[in-house]
Amino acid sequence: MKNITTIIFDLGNVLIDWNPDYVFDKLFTDKEAKKHFLQNICTSDWNEQQDAGRTIKEATEELVAKFPEHKDPIEAYYGKWIEMIGGPIHDTVEIFRQLKESGRYKIYALTNWSAELFPLVLAEYEFLHWFDGRLVSGEEKIRKPQPEFYQLLLDRFEINADEAFFIDDNLRNIKAAEAMGIRSHHFTSPQKLKEELQQLQLLNGLAK
Fold first, then answer.
1. pLDDT at residue 208 in the model
2. What's the pLDDT tens digit per position in 9-27?
3. How many helices (H) and strands (E) does the chain have?
4. Partners of residue 7 on adjacent β-strands
5. Which residues, in sequence order, are CB contacts of 102 under 8 Å at separation 6+?
6. Average pLDDT over the chain, rounded to an integer
7. 113: Cβ–Cβ under 8 A, 6 or more apart, which residues?
């Protein structure tokens, strides 16, 4: 393996806990009704269009027009969006801190996030300012897993793909990065991430 000089983090559910259930568990007493709503109305595909640059206003109005009987929960998706944030995933933030303080790596963020919503977490979490650079999909109008988004990161920050290590909780995004020649870790827990980093000797010599 070529020497790793660059670490690239996804944000949602790697460094920051995000889950629509935090809102919709309160709005739906029927679990099946909630499941139907999130799988068929406010879907992940719909949400990703906002990550790619569509405005929240346009997205909300489109769904309300299509599903007027679900107006209140549709409007709650972004109206109560901040309540979907559970806070930092502290053990991953600690890994990030150790990598940063080692001085060995350039560290970047590559995230699918609405440009309208990202400032809310940027103002809240200091560790989001530790990166040497970041790309936010909503600001760039392109998102993972599109190859162009990864290439933009490589080009803008002069990163060599074969010297980078990418961390993301979405296997689809991992496969896209690997197709670009970027070694990747499918994030499932901070502990498993730490173990792989240690196996690759990227965390060796740092605090346990």
1. 44
2. 999 999 999 999 999 999 9
3. 11, 7
4. 107, 165
5. 205, 206
6. 96
7. 11, 12, 51, 121, 136, 137, 138
SS3 204: coil
Q: How far apart are CA 106 and CA 30, in angstroms?
A: 46
At 17 the pLDDT is 98
Whole-structure pTM over 0.85, yes or no? yes
Beta bridge partners of 174: none
- Side chain identity, residue 1: M
Alpha carbons within 13 A on the beta-carbon side of 18: 20
Residue showing tokens 């498993």 = 192
Q: How far is it, in rounded angstroms, from Cα 177 to Cα 187? A: 13
Supply 147's token pair.
């190859």
The answer to whether 61 touches 78, Cβ cutoff 8 Å, is no
